[in-house]
Amino acid sequence: MNAFQLGPFIIKHTWLYAILALVITYFLLKKLLNENQDFLGEFLDALVNSLFIGVLSFKASILLYRPELLTTNPLGALYLSGGLKEWLTAISLALLYMYWKAKKNKWPARLTMRGIVYGIVTFITAFWLLRTLFLLVI
Which residue has the higher pLDDT, 75 or 53? Predict the structure, then answer.
């Protein structure tokens, strides 16, 4: 199994790769978008908030699509992993939040797209690199 146990918690390796890739992406975006400090602060705050909204909506959407869990086993929803519908719900809500923040704060389209593209490419590359290096070491 691709996980290790830390006390009562079972931690998957992929979650560690994702967390490390997020940290790398955060600091690289901070470095690359350094020319406009006002936009940088607002964009990174909105990015972190949209990530938080995505995680919460991913877990909560299990109850949305399986409402019988509310009466039978409400805490069981915390242990279930979501499927495609839950992922799409989380991504949609996170993207809607980013769109709303961009319209509200009137971010320049060029800087916004640059931040989004750099963020996605950096995250995917860092995740792949960390996973590959871990597999080569073990």
Answer: 53
| Helix or strand holding residue 9 (H, E) | strand 9-12
Instruction: Tell whether the model's pLDDT for residue 78 goes beyond 90.
Output: no
pLDDT the model gives residue 43: 92
C-alpha 31/C-alpha 93 separation (Å) is 27
What end-to-end distance do the CA atoms of the chain give, in Å?
A: 13
Residues 6+ apart with CB under 8 A from 65: 85, 86
Tell me the residue type at 126: A
Q: How far apart are CA 45 and CA 116, in angstroms?
A: 13
Q: Is 28 exposed, middle or buried (0-12, 13-18, 19+ CB in 10 A)?
A: middle
